Amino acid sequence: MSSGKDLSRERPLDPRQALAEADRIGTTVRRRIRWNGWVWLVIAIATPLFWLGTWTNWLSRPLQFWVAVGFLIVAAMITVVAMVREARRGVVDRRVARMEWPITWAYMAVVFVMAVLVIVFDTSEAPLWFVLGALATAVPGLVGAWRTLVR
Fold first, then answer.
1. Which letter does DSSP use for residue 76 in this model?
2. For the chain, what is the domain count?
3. Full DSSP string of 124-138
4. Is residue 19 included in any domain, yes or no?
5. Domain assignment present for 60
């Protein structure tokens, strides 16, 4: 005989109780995955600010340094929080799990292209292509935030 409960002896849920339980579980899952959307929103805001703040002459040299340091601190905090939350999450939303890696790869690709462009070309006067490219680095994060937070 097994040591677990004998489920055949338990009273079955009526349909209203089953729907209420399903709603409760759905609410729990949605609440637990919202952090992912907020992380993408912070990334979408911080990345263009980083590019514009560190690769133009809009800010003085000391301020450029502090923008870069601030970006590193934000990135490190996001990474640590994401790792801890991921380890403790326990509940995975299929839609978020499916989109997480494609959005991460898209973000890395856009940032890589921008890095190559700023190394090759002069961006001190913030040409239009550079400003548009800096804003483009926000697109993957905005998509991730929108798809996670807006339901």
1. H
2. 1
3. TT--HHHHHHHHHTT
4. no
5. yes
The dihedrals phi and psi of 11, each to the nearest 5 degrees, come to -75, 130
Q: Say whether pLDDT at 2 is over 50.
A: no
Give a yes or no: residue 7 inside a domain: no
SS3 13: coil
pLDDT, tens digit, 9 for 90 and up, residues 36-78: 888 899 999 999 998 988 888 888 888 888 888 888 888 888 8
pTM of the predicted structure, to 2 decimals? 0.72
Residue 134 is encoded by which pair of tokens?
Answer: 């800096």
Look over the chain and give the mean of its residue pLDDT values, rounded to a whole number: 82
Which residues form the domain of 72? 36-149
Classify residue 113: in a domain, yes or no: yes
Tokens found for residue 136: 């483009």
More confident position, 89 or 59 = 59
Q: Please give the Cα distance from 62 to 64 (Å, whole number).
A: 5
